[in-house]
Amino acid sequence: MQSVRALTLKLKENIGKVIVGKDDEVELLLTALLASGHVLLEDVPGTGKTMLAKSLAASLSLSFQRIQFTPDLLPSDLTGIHFYNQKDGEFHFRPGPLFSRLILADEINRATPRTQSSLLECMEERQISIDGETMALEKHFMVMATQNPVDHQGTFPLPEAQMDRFMIRMKLGYPSAIEGKEILMRTAGAGGLHSGRAESVATPEEVLEAQHLCSQVQISEDLLVYIVALAEATRKHSDITLGISPRGTQALLRAAQSYAAIQGREYVLPDDIKHLFIPVCAHRLVLKKRYETLGSPAERMLHEVLEQIPVPSEEGLESSVK
User: Fold this and answer.
1) In a domain, 43, yes or no
2) Cα end-to-end distance, the chain, whole Å
3) DSSP-assigned beta bridge partners for residue 145
4) CA angle (295 as vertex; 283, 161 as ends), nearest 5
5) What is the pLDDT of residues 44-79, one digit of tens each?
6) Contacting residues for 162 by C-beta, under 8 A, at least 6 apart
7) What CATH number is attached to the domain comprising 80?
8) β-bridge pairing 90-95 and 102-106
9) What are the pLDDT digits (tens) for 115-143?
10) Which of 2, 71, 186, 320 holds its CA 20 to 30 A away from the CA of 132?
């Protein structure tokens, strides 16, 4: 798995030319990329969400489309339309922005549920059905969506089915004082705010190979039981209406394999699962109504679950791997 680690280190260094700090967040993003997952960036404006998506696309030479979601956005604005060409008297298909490889769905919760639902099929099955015809999307198709967790005026909350299709939800957060100073120094330097540019340092084919290697990472049967036990605990929790779905456990498994490969290992450790449990699973929970006005205590509940469920013993893991 050293080739996967070398690839991710190269990508992190290149993205670091544009994004100051945020090593852990970039690593989560690359984990989702290598696990063929989608990412929901939930943060306030101005923290670098759009720049992060552009930097990833530039690093891999991927076709990139930024879609500004608004209440008047229609599903056909995303998928494309068939139009009648008067010159040849035939209908032709004009593809929409979803036929790119990397999509930035900016402020996704400002579009109507009808438009949001147009992403369900393409995110899960990598295909789009239009007028009875099914068209395949690119192999590297990935959606990075953003939403502001503070401003809810004029927004439409993402339904559970939509949230469940995002492998990881992450926050960039405000920079530290040192990082903030570095951002200002780059802004004041030659070229201004956008003086740092991410260059192409890897090919889509390298990503495909890395994705294949990640899928070969070993995970013991004890750890599979551990993942199921964590999911079962959320389904039986007295304060949770809907716990982690089977899709959620599959996402946690794939993310753990990719994260282990990024660390240069050929096997998954319990710490990999514990590290990814909240970013992969917190947004999939539906809590009791009495918690709706208390912010989002889902992360606290998942911490409780991690403390309650025993971690497989080291001896059992070693025997399973052997």
Assistant:
1) yes
2) 18
3) 40, 105
4) 25
5) 778 888 888 889 988 988 888 899 999 999 998 999
6) 116, 117, 119, 120
7) 3.40.50.300
8) unpaired
9) 988 888 899 888 998 888 888 888 788 99
10) 71
Q: Where are the beta strands (DSSP E) in 3-89?
A: 39-42, 64-68, 80-85
Q: Is 32 a domain residue?
A: yes
Radius of gyration of the chain (CA): 21
Closest C-alpha to 107, from 98, 116, 99: 116
- pLDDT tens-digit readout, 183-214: 888 888 755 545 557 788 888 889 999 999 99
Supply 96's token pair: 């929409």
Which residue range(s) make up the domain with 259? 217-317
Contact 321, 218 (CB under 8 A): yes
- Same domain as 281, residue 133: no
Measuring CA to CA, which residue among 60, 259, 64, 205 is closest to residue 144?
64
Tokens of 205: 């084919």
Residue 54 region, left (φ>0) first, then alpha (ψ -120 to 50), else beta?
alpha
3-state helix, strand, coil in the chain (%, to 5): 50, 15, 35
